[in-house]
């Protein structure tokens, strides 16, 4: 199985910047992002999330987000996607970075999820 990462943020600049950081440890992991509303204001967009899903060449996606309303849009987009989507309620930067590094190292998904568990937002 081929895994990729999707980042969703309320701020376009954060959504664009985090993949740059992740690529430093995971140059072979496909990473796409969706940031801001359709008008590039603060918020999220199901349309942008669906585009990030489609633009990511991976077969299966690990998704990370910044705030609760982004989760709602991710859940909605996930229902419309043909790809399996894994949504993580974890600290955005730390968990996305960890997942990217572990994917690059060839670690299997159950072990990645075990390592993300302590980063869960309660």
TrEMBL record:
InterPro entries: DhaM, DhaM_N, PTS_EIIA_man-typ, PTS_EIIA_man-typ_sf
Organism: Lactobacillus corticis
Pfam families xref list: EIIA-man
The protein's Enzyme Commission number: 2.7.1.121
Reactions it catalyzes: dihydroxyacetone + phosphoenolpyruvate = dihydroxyacetone phosphate + pyruvate
GO CC annotations on file: membrane
Any one GO BP annotation for this protein: glycerol catabolic process
Coiled coil regions in record: none
Top-rank lineage group of the source organism: Bacteria
Function statement: Component of the dihydroxyacetone kinase complex, which is responsible for the phosphoenolpyruvate (PEP)-dependent phosphorylation of dihydroxyacetone. DhaM serves as the phosphoryl donor. Is phosphorylated by phosphoenolpyruvate in an EI- and HPr-dependent reaction, and a phosphorelay system on histidine residues finally leads to phosphoryl transfer to DhaL and dihydroxyacetone.
GO MF, one annotated term: phosphoenolpyruvate-glycerone phosphotransferase activity
Keywords per UniProt: Transferase
Quaternary state and interactors: Homodimer. The dihydroxyacetone kinase complex is composed of a homodimer of DhaM, a homodimer of DhaK and the subunit DhaL.
Span of domain PTS EIIA type-4: 2-122
Protein's recorded name: phosphoenolpyruvate--glycerone phosphotransferase
